[in-house]
Give the backbone structure.
Amino acid sequence: MVQEEFSKYGISYSFAKGTEISDFENEIKANTKVIYIETPSNPLLNIIDVHGVAKLAKEKGLVSMIDNTFASPINQTPLDLGVDLVIHSATKYLGGHSDISAGAVAGRKELVDKVMFKGRNLGGNLSDFMCFLLERSMKTLALRIEKHNENAQFIAENLSENPMVKKVYYPGLTSHKNHRIAKAQMNGFGGMLSFDLAGDFDAKVYQKNLKMIRSSMSLAGIESTIIQPSLTSHALMSSEKRMKLGISDNLLRLSVGLENKEDILADLTQALNI
Ligand SMILES: *Cc1c(COP(=O)(O)O)cnc(C)c1O
């Protein structure tokens, strides 16, 4: 979206070179209006200090925006941390059943009104049935997230002890490089995690070995799903560029569902030992 569409609207941009506050400060130019972050990020679960970014934006007179999809509003409440606009893909945890496509934006009325106005002109709106499904799903959001958090923590801890797994990326692990910040700004660490397979175990073969967990582009549903970012979301990027971002060809992104956690682990483990 940023790389392919922004220039058509006369919007320029630059990407922060890292996840520290100074990385964002370094990119601020005379014409900068917005700082946009995503934390935890897709697919490596990088963590950014949300309050730090909001404070920087405020000091510089900029609008701060966050994609809060991976955390959900149960695990992270960025408005409390000083962010101006919060965006959610409601297709994910808010919907939670992999059967709708929707989005949400939250913030001060004067800012949200501008988004509403643009949405009206650009035609983005939801059908009555989508609204009905979304509203019904949100009634169980807190319960579902509690279980997603518990299951993902269990899977992350167990996979990190498996010699067939090289590295697990999950903010709830004390080994995560920004675990301390995650713990301070989140109420729970969420249901998303990624892992690198050890050696030259092919991630495509691994996915075929799974019996219960199915491959899917989307995430955050009742059922556990898995994808290989190098072949899907980041397929258009060169292998070299992906490696620079830390996305190896054998990286797998797992959306930990609400099944029995022992069943999820058993499937993940048997696929490693085949
Ligand atoms: C899926 C996703 C989006 C896009 O949302 P859609 O509802 O599919 O348009 C944006 N950000 C994150 C973090 C996502 O996971």
About this structure: Strands lie at 34-38, 63-67, 85-89, 103-107, 165-169, 192-197, 214-215, 225-227, 251-255. Residues 2-138 form a domain with the Aspartate Aminotransferase; domain 2 fold (CATH 3.40.640.10).
